[in-house]
């Protein structure tokens, strides 16, 4: 019997135009993959291959890396990463904005289970430590289709350490640091904070500085959804920079933008970016990221003042039954999305509301009309009905002007991310993600900002979505198509992308990315998800 001769390589992409992630001009090249790595990049490649895919007329790029994702919320209900992997996203940096569901205290288990249930997870919260959650996601249950690199959330550290109220004392900081060190030992990139909502809003600068000090021992990153992005933007940026400077940390300022018509001075954003540039010149490793649309997601409780949230969401719901309390709130919700205080409720859609799913996808004027009340009472009713689970209520808002989005995307200090989470077209997630952000957020950068608006060249857009992100988070061997790199690859059909209206909610998965390879394995082939879960956990290098 003749010997079986193994192919020289596993897979070859033939005849495509290569945009390699470095920013270099596109060129025609074949790409060969073996054992999860790129082993050849050259024209006219001759090699025996287990699979050959003709990509003539298509564009080959590194798999996109989402620099700012919340897919840790939805991955347990969507391990196949349906909506994102089909856009060519092979890696997501998750755990942002302070909100992770580990570590978790015994008292926080029910809230975590209910919140994750809204994103399609049907299991129990059996973990307590951050490392235990990583085991559930990556080592049990079949893994994931995409690679994930994780931050641990400061708000979760507060919960696990049972820190309540304004400013942790020394003992509280010690407990938080212990949980942070456990997460860093498990490979977390660093700590994220979210300072406009929830328990994070109660954290003082001293608390954040004290906890973040532990990151310096690990060369960890401090990432922050800063305290304000309207009239007090510059104060919030200064706080962020002071925390990083004091501890000599690498720092990532999440979605640095200014919400439209919320009191910021006309030059506030430019001044903020200038302060980042000055810190970089002085030696700080600091960058920012931006999102693709004028819209963004937010937590509904972020609009509420601290006094009504102080005793927990169940008590908040009881207080919302009082007409006098509601009257007081109407004059005391001038925070977070401050434009609603001006009556601009038409800019807000109810995105996720497990207790009132029939209202999801409606704007607040639509909800108010349906219920025969004004927008404030409609908002308060949604939160009151949610009760103890009101922190799971999410909004989608029209936050920025298109001109501001384009300027931030094009700025050299900004990586590109989406600030959403992987979704799917069926189940609970389908009902809660009725916006193109979740289904075409990544391809929108190419379809709109490159091919239609010309905000960026194709090569620069791909660089900002691949090698720039990989370098920022030390994801070694990713973000470039070069010999020796991990074989995370996306094949783009630019003609199909140019024909799409990525401002419109498609109700289906994105078109225009026919093939996606993760760690050398085909996950999407001819536009169909193969069910392959080739993703890896990417611990801090």
TrEMBL record:
Residues 53-524 form the Amidohydrolase domain. It comes from the Bacteria. GO terms for molecular function: hydrolase activity, acting on carbon-nitrogen (but not peptide) bonds, in cyclic amides; hydrolase activity, acting on carbon-nitrogen (but not peptide) bonds, in linear amides. One of its GO terms (cellular component) is cytosol. This is N-acyl-D-amino-acid deacylase. It comes from Saccharopolyspora shandongensis.
């Amino acid at each position: 019997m003749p010997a079986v001769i193994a192919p020289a390589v596993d897979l070859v992409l033939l005849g495509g135009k290569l945009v390699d992630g470095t920013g270099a001009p596109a060129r025609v090249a074949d790409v060969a993959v073996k054992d999860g790595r790129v082993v050849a990049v050259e024209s006219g490649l001759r090699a025996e291959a287990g699979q050959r895919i003709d990509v003539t007329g298509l564009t080959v790029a590194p798999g996109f890396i989402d620099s700012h994702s919340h897919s840790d919320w939805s991955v347990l209900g969507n391990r196949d990463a349906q909506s994102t992997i089909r856009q060519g996203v092979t890696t997501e940096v998750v755990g942002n904005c302070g909100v992770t569901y580990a570590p978790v205290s015994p008292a926080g288990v029910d809230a975590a289970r209910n919140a994750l249930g809204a994103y399609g997870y049907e299991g129990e919260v059996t973990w307590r430590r951050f490392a235990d959650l990583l085991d559930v996601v990556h080592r049990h249950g079949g893994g994931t289709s995409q690679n994930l690199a994780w931050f641990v959330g400061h708000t979760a550290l507060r919960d696990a350490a049972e820190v309540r109220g304004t400013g942790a004392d020394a003992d509280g900081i010690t407990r938080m640091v212990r949980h942070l060190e456990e997460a860093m030992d498990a490979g977390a990139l660093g700590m994220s904070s979210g300072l406009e909502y929830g328990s994070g809003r109660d954290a003082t600068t001293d608390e954040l500085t004290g906890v973040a000090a532990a990151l310096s021992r690990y060369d960890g990153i401090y990432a922050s959804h800063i305290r304000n992005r309207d009239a007090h933007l510059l104060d919030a940026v200064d706080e962020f920079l002071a925390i990083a400077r004091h501890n000599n940390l690498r720092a990532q300022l999440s979605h640095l933008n200014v919400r439209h018509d919320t009191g910021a001075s006309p030059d506030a954003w430019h001044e903020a970016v200038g302060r980042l540039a000055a810190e970089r010149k002085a030696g700080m490793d600091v960058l920012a990221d931006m999102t693709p649309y004028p819209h963004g997601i937010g937590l509904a409780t972020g609009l509420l003042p601290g006094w009504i949230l102080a005793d927990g969401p169940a008590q908040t719901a009881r207080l919302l039954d009082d007409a006098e309390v509601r009257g007081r709130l109407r004059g005391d919700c001038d925070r977070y999305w401050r434009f609603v205080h001006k009556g601009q409720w038409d800019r807000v859609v109810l995105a996720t509301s497990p207790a009132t799913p029939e209202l999801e996808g409606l704007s607040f004027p639509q909800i108010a009309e349906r219920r025969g009340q004004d927008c404030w009472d409609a908002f308060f009713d949604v939160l009151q009905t949610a009760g103890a689970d009101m922190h799971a209520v999410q909004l989608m808002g029209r936050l920025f002007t298109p001109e501001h989005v384009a300027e931030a995307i094009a700025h050299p200090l900004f990586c590109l991310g989406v600030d959403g989470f992987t979704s799917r077209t069926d189940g609970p997630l389908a009902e809660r993600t009725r916006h193109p952000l979740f289904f075409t957020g990544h391809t929108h950068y190419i379809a709109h900002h490159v091919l239609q608006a010309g905000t960026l060249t194709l090569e620069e857009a791909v660089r900002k979505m691949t090698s720039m992100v990989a370098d920022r988070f030390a994801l070694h061997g990713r973000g470039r198509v070069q010999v020796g790199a991990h074989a995370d690859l996306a094949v783009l059909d630019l003609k199909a992308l140019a024909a799409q209206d990525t401002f419109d909610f498609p109700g289906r998965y994105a078109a225009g990315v026919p093939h996606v390879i993760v760690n050398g394995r085909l996950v999407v082939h001819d536009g169909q998800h193969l069910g392959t879960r080739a993703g890896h956990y990417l611990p801090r290098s």
